[in-house]
Amino acid sequence: MPEENQYAVRMDRSNGGWSVRILDPGGTPVAERACADEAEARTYASTVRQHVYWLSEERFRQYYRLPESA
Fold it and tell me: Which residue has the higher pLDDT, 33 or 70?
C-alpha cells in the first residue's frame, strides 16, 4: 500500500475575503486560491482534501502542479 499523502488544506478568512491554501508535508504553503465567499472556499477545500486522501503525493503534486517537497 502506498504511503499516506501528507499534504494538507487550510481555509483562511481575512479582510479581503476567503482563501484556500495547500500546505506541503512540512506545513509550508505551496499553493493558494482566492475564493469569492465561504461556500466556494469550503467546496474547493473539500475537493482538495478528497484528492489528498485518494492520490499519492507524487500524483497530487502533478495534478495541482506543485513543486517537489524539500
Answer: 33
Q: Is residue 70 part of a domain?
A: no
The grid cell for 57 is: 503525493
Domain membership flag for residue 3: no
Please name which of 36, 33, 43 lies closest in space to residue 17, comparing C-alpha atoms: 36
**Domain presence at residue 44:** yes
DSSP secondary structure, 27-50, as one string: S-EEEEEEESSHHHHHHHHHHHHH
Give every CB contact of residue 49 below 8 A, 6+ residues apart in sequence.
Answer: 9
Over residues 26-54, the pLDDT tens digits come to 999 999 999 999 999 999 999 999 999 99
* CB-count burial class (<10 Å; 0-12, 13-18, 19+) for 12: middle
